[in-house]
What we know:
The structure holds 2 protein chains of 2 kinds. Chain A is an alpha+beta fold. Chain A has helices spanning 30-55, 59-72, and strands at 10-16, 24-29, 77-82, 85-91. Chain A has one domain. Helices cover 43% and strands 28% of the residues of chain A. In chain A, 4% of the residues are buried. Chain B has 5 helices and 4 strands; from the N terminus they run ααββαααββ. A 4-stranded antiparallel beta sheet of chain B has the order 2-1-4-3. In chain B, helix 1 (3-13) packs antiparallel against helix 2 and helix 3 (69-79) packs antiparallel against helix 5 (108-118).
Amino acid sequence: MKGEILPPLTASVHVRRAGWRFGLRLWLPLFLFWLLLLPLVLLALPFLLAAALIFGVRFWGSIRAVLSLLAATRGTSIAVDRPGSRIFVNLQ
Amino acid sequence: MTDNRRHILDMLASGKITAAEAERLLAALERPAGATVMSESDRAKYLRVLVDTVDPLEGPTKVNVRVPMQLLRAGVKLTGFIPSHAREQVNDALRKEGISFDINNITPQNLEDVVEQLRELTVDVNNDNTKVRVFCE
């Protein structure tokens, strides 16, 4: 269960298109995005709690499930190769 | 013949269990102790989809997608948070489309069984211009 709710911390994105002289290689620190998102989520919590009460949904369970879903995206990788072009995305 | 084996065959003979259930029980008896619990390393971790296609105009394209099995598990867990009235609505909608499926049957235990079976799954589609391979690793 260790790290079960830890969302992807980094993403690697490689893009190279036909005609481009150089490819684009990005290393995205997603953890910064989560840190920026955290205050917004905290502000939204009372509204989410109210919605959960109105619709009869388990609040903390839902939060945990959404975090698990985010965490489960770690390890996802998508690569598309065509002559002269390549797109690669990897979540870690 | 061991007592357990004889007991299973007796239950089968008396009609208390079906042949399929007896087969499953006998298979479980034959498994070595501790083999019923799958170790973490034995479990399939990723679903892989490989597509290799040749477009007459744009040339060959290769797609390689790796999806963690944990994503499937987490997605199914989310169904547990659907309110009961909404579940009925979903079931009604499925029935209207001719799909006799009850989403109440999607449970973590059932999912583990499905995921375990997926481990053995390999789908190979070969066409003139396209090859698709789906498997777990």
